[in-house]
Specification:
Order of helices and strands: HHEEEHEHEEEEEHEEEHEEHEHEH
Number of helices: 9
Largest sheet: 8 strands, mixed
Distance between the termini: 28 Å
Number of strands: 16
Helix content: 25-40%
Strand order of the largest sheet: 1-2-4-3-5-16-6-15
């Protein structure tokens, strides 16, 4: 990679960093990406339900069945005010606190590298610039709009890379099998009968029963599920009552639930509502329960994960790759792509080299600072994944 390209990617990343947008509607971000791709021989389309960008690069060498590969970079920021003190910090009340500005710049870099090697590519590459990763189901929106069929044939592999602000810069991480958690919601309304706080025997207290249900849920997931295929349940909301001497008619709580396999997700959906309603009924109350599957687990195909890891080691050396012993408990909507296409997803450390590691803030923090010099490796790695995968697919007929 030329020094000029590296400097261009850093400049693009910093420009994107200053104009973060949230959700599915990112017009300024989309405009910068389209401008950055201008001049490349790409078939570019934009979304209608979201301001996505899909770009297809047609390789020059014939391959077996005209194979394709998908590379993805997410585009949206988060609704929090930046507190980094950087000269290019956002000032619009949103922030690229998850590093998506680097993801976009890295994917643009991969497109430029692969465009320069077009004549050597043994197939096509789909560049997926995706809005709405932060809870807006943007990957599913792009699937419904045809991103997986953009090249004419479904990809033989799909790959993603996420930067991390509190890990050593330049270190790649990955693992086969479950890589990131599924995320579900449990929404509960406990229906009781209100009354005076001095006469609880004349009421049906939904707050007390709700608290008992919450404790039982924590006991249930630790005692009924295998610790090596775990469940993480966090009640982040509990609302009930308006005064300390009044028993309300109802109480509401909401829980986020994470797990790592579809089988456990199925069990949770079937068993947790029964537990909630059973405890409520035991106290003479009722409960309305909604279990909502939000994101499936991100599960790396074993062969593609090995390919992902070996590519990182070949390019950057064994010391720059770490195989994770356990999956990460966060969730990622690239899981929707991997539900359709075999592939692999992993992380790249981007902790600032100008800071003491003890001062690194994690992603989603208003203080998160990313080392943007990793963009060269980011772009090179994504480009190599695509080129090598196309070579591997074409090899049997070569």
């Amino acid at each position: 990679m030329s020094d000029e390209l590296g400097l261009d990617l850093v400049a693009l990343r910093r420009e994107l960093h200053q104009i973060p947008e949230t959700g599915l509607d990112l017009p300024k971000t989309q405009g910068l990406i389209l401008e950055a791709l201008r001049g490349l021989e790409l078939e570019v389309t934009t979304g209608t339900q979201a301001t996505s960008v899909t770009a297809v690069l047609r390789g020059g060498r014939p391959g077996a069945g005209r194979a394709s590969v998908l590379l993805r970079g997410d585009m949206d920021g988060l609704p929090l005010s930046e507190n980094t003190g950087l000269p290019f910090a956002s000032r619009n009340g949103a922030m690229h606190a998850c590093g998506h500005d680097l993801h976009m710049a890295g994917l643009v870099g991969a497109a430029r590298l692969l465009d320069a090697r077009r004549s050597q590519l043994q197939g096509d590459v789909i560049f997926m610039f995706q809005p709405g990763e932060e809870g807006f189901n943007g990957a599913q929106v792009m699937i419904e709009e045809g991103v997986l069929d953009a090249a004419g044939t479904r990809p033989s592999g799909a790959y993603g890379l996420h930067v991390v602000s509190d890990a050593a810069a330049g270190v790649f991480t990955n693992r086969p099998g479950p890589y990131m958690a599924a995320f579900c919601r449990l929404d509960v309304v406990v229906n009781g009968r209100g009354g005076h706080g001095a006469r609880p025997f004349q009421a049906l207290d939904p707050i007390q029963v709700g608290a008992e249900i919450i404790g039982a849920l924590q006991t249930y997931v630790t005692r009924r599920f295998d610790v090596f295929d775990p469940v993480i349940l966090t009640v982040g909301e509990f609302h009930g009552g308006t005064a300390p001497n009044v028993i309300p008619d109802s109480a509401v709580f909401r829980a986020g639930i994470r797990c790592f396999t579809p089988e456990v997700e199925d069990r949770l959906e079937g068993e947790l509502p029964d537990l909630v309603t059973g405890i409520a009924h035991a106290h003479g109350l009722s409960a309305d329960v909604a279990f909502r599957r939000t994101l499936p687990a991100t599960i790396n195909d074993a062969e593609h994960a090995e390919f992902w890891a070996s590519t990182a080691q070949d390019l950057f050396g064994e010391g720059r790759f770490e195989a994770l012993p356990n999956p990460k408990a966060g969730s990622e909507d690239f899981s929707r792509i991997l539900n359709e296409i075999p592939g692999s997803y992993g992380h790249l450390g981007a902790g600032s080299r100008d800071m003491d590691p003890v001062d690194w803030a994690p992603i989603h923090s208003a203080r998160a600072v990313f080392e943007d010099s990793v963009l060269e490796d980011h772009a090179l790695f994504l480009a190599a994944l695509a080129e090598r995968r196309l070579q591997r697919v074409a090899a049997p007929s070569a």
